[in-house]
């Protein structure tokens, strides 16, 4: 029974061009790892640590670019069967999303002058990288529209092309301009890819018509969905920020960043399936049997996959770390703890977090992530000074499982209410 469910699940995934998304994402991750390796070769560890510290400040703000309107675009367009309405929703998101990005950039720049940064040049990098919000938002809504159009092939190609262009840019620019070249690469890559794919989303430039979906609920959903992603991003970034603050050693920031690269890169696996299937299961969210079968198939497959990855990391962790740098081998235990943690995202968090969004309960994800963030900060203030980067890994691993468990409990209760309301 288990094998049949998994087989059917994978076949449905492949029918939705999931193989393109899967392969493109793998190549994109490989290229991303290569880009990280290139940066390590051409940029001094101390300078790279400061840049990564600054970049992680912007990373947790990126999901809120456009005030999360790209999140609303995905869900509300998926629920609307009218092609003309979908076109107006996109144009509305594009217009007001760009305005929101400009407001956020102004706030970031203004705020940076009232903060005392621990590392030299951190403020400079944060100000320049704040402009990443605009190209990142444009690229995000283009990818979102491709998914809405069930054009998973071009969605996959866009992810791959972005990583390829970024690798080329970072190889050339960091060689000549070191950390400044890294910054330019981050800003330029999404612009080039967006220009290439903008014609493929098949949007007609017309006067925006306010359709029924474009109301307060549209903004509320996107805002909380984006806040949830901000806090979730911060859950990953806070470790690096707290390591930099509590240990006051930029090189340890670099060490944790690279030791965590492989575990966090593996999070693409559940994301590939969810990104491919989100529009499909949102369209059928009121079909209880469909959703129940989807959940069962997903959990069975990712439980098996998690077990295999944990065993592999236990026996070959040192080898994997040595591929990045021989000096990282001594952090094998930290690496293994993070691998245990991501299995919680594989099995629970990735699935039920997205199902909560699918039923319009994105604010629940925000509440769960916010509570986890508070626990993360309190725990790391104790564990990082005592255990170093291993302490940060312990906190992250526990919270990955706890947030997944709470997402499951909340979805189970709220989904029953949604079904009863729909009757």
Question: What can you tell me about this protein's structure?
Answer:
The protein is mainly alpha-helical. It has helices at residues 2-15, 18-42, 45-59, 69-78, 83-112, 122-130, 133-148, 152-197, 216-246, 250-259, 261-265, 268-283, 288-324, 332-358, 362-387, 389-422. It has one domain. Helix content is 83%, strand content 0%. Helix 12 packs parallel to helix 14. It is globular. The model has no long low-confidence stretch (mean pLDDT 87). Pfam families: Polysacc_synt (PF01943). It comes from Polaribacter marinaquae. This is Polysaccharide biosynthesis C-terminal domain-containing protein. Its main location: membrane.
Distance between the termini: 31 Å
Order of helices and strands: HHHHHHHHHHHHHHHH
- For the record, the count of structural domains works out to 1
β-strand percent reads under 5%
User: Structural class per helix/strand content?
Assistant: mainly alpha
Q: What is the number of helical segments per DSSP (H or I, 4+ residues)?
A: 16
Largest sheet: none
> Which value, in Å, is the CA radius of gyration?
21 Å
Mean pLDDT: 87
- The coarse silhouette is globular
Number of strands: 0
Runs in which pLDDT lies below 50 for 5 or more consecutive residues are none
Query: In percent, how helical is the residue content?
Result: over 70%
Set down the secondary structure blueprint.
Elements: H1 2-15, H2 18-42, H3 45-59, H4 69-78, H5 83-112, H6 122-130, H7 133-148, H8 152-197, H9 216-246, H10 250-259, H11 261-265, H12 268-283, H13 288-324, H14 332-358, H15 362-387, H16 389-422
Helix pairs in contact: 1-13, 2-8, 2-12, 3-6, 3-9, 3-10, 4-5, 4-7, 4-9, 5-6, 5-7, 7-8, 9-10, 9-15, 9-16, 12-14, 13-14, 14-15, 14-16, 15-16
